[in-house]
Amino acid sequence: GTVGFVGVPHGVEVPIEKAQPGDLVFGSWGPAGPGHVGIYSGNGQMVHAPTTGDVVTEAPLQPGMKARRVM
Predict the structure, then answer these.
(1) Whole-prediction pTM value?
(2) Dihedral (C-alpha) 29, 69, 61, 33: value to the nearest 10 degrees?
(3) Residues forming a β-bridge with 59
């Protein structure tokens, strides 16, 4: 899936409170890792597609999300 392709092992984890616009944010954690990915847009918001086939929107970060900076 997309989350596996984006790859949590890539980049550097940053505390969610230090996330900067453009950082990847991962959530919906399960035994195999994250089930959701978005792009941090600032002010506690992310850009993401809420469900497969849905439109891309800006929404608040979900509880438990983690951020990674990939350069």
Answers:
(1) 0.81
(2) -10
(3) 46
